[in-house]
Amino acid sequence: xxxxxxxxxxxxxxxxxxxxxxxxxxxxxxxxxxxxxxxxxxxxxxxxxxxxxxxxxxxxxxxxxxxxxxxxxxxxxxxxxxxxxxxxxxxxxxxxxxxxxxxxxxxxxxxxxxxxxxxxxxxxxxxxxxxxxxxxxxxxxxxxxxxxxxxxxxxxxxxxxxxxxxxxxxxxxxxxxxxxxxxxxxxxxxxxxxxxxxxxxxxxxxxxxxxxxxxxxxxxxxxxxxxxxxxxxxxxxxxxxxxxxxxxxxxxxxxxxxxxxxxxxxxxxxxxxxxxxxxxxxxxxxxxxxxxxxxxxxxxxxxxxxxxxxxxxxxxxxxxxxxxxxxxxxxxxxxxxxxxxxxxxxxxxxxxxxxxxxxxxxxxxxxxxxxxxxxxxxxxxxxxxxxxxxxxxxxxxxxxxxxxxxxx
Length: 408
Hints:
alpha/beta, Rossmann fold
């Protein structure tokens, strides 16, 4: 289920069939986004809608099929519902009739395992109002708020919004800075951006655009050039940047041209720290040198794109890795947030792209099975830097000051 193109917090609405999930999403959006019917199983595939929540900003609501759906088709629907857990930052679980059973327990177990906070909504309260003893049992057991709601009167809608705002993890919506802790007011940041067959026509790739915006947001100055102009710029301008950032496909050239006393890193490495799991990447990257003949490597792309003959993930990294290790390795590439065709334990290494097209939560959940299984994980940029022999320099801007070279 590829839902990673929206950089907004995702909220999944869960519950049994005909419990009022679609009515709730319609009430929250103020539109008839989801089909409402007395017929159980009306919602088949997850339905999405963006709304604005004061104090949070834009969020994506996802209406899901009933968790108690039956039959072969119902099983497929519930599997899609479970897939939604991998991409959400908050869950809303709709209850009815002052009851909670095995279906809800299974969902809550999944939420806990994925670190997803939950808000309970007791729907259809015009038919049966919320019992206070039931409210107490739910809130005490799960440490989550429970709000009574009727789609007929749309009562307590503001209370639901307040519960969402109070429960949503701040890191899901609070904008962080890519490099705010690395630069100060007025600093010059040099961006080395190759324009090759993978570059989109007439524009820059997203990580480069994000870096430029972040530099401007931090009241700094961005100097953007191609790698071919790098030497002439440094020689003729006499400018000494505070930081240089390059596409890791040209990091070897940048390493040779940028003076050693200027910190140098890659766009993908910058995203690796920004998106999370950086510590796991630091541990996993050196495992590239320990790969053996026949090992299988998983390359995870965060988006679906046109594949060029010089594609970084499908062509360049496998070629570099084969040459660097001298081993005969096998590679699988999985785009977007698609299912893996093999068990994660079949792999000796997982290489994740920068993740510019997905949220931090989606990236963390994408890598969680590998990390839990003890499989080394790394990132496109960090893997390339390791294989090009410039890894220590590329991660040095982010490691703890005073850490010895042998510890990096």
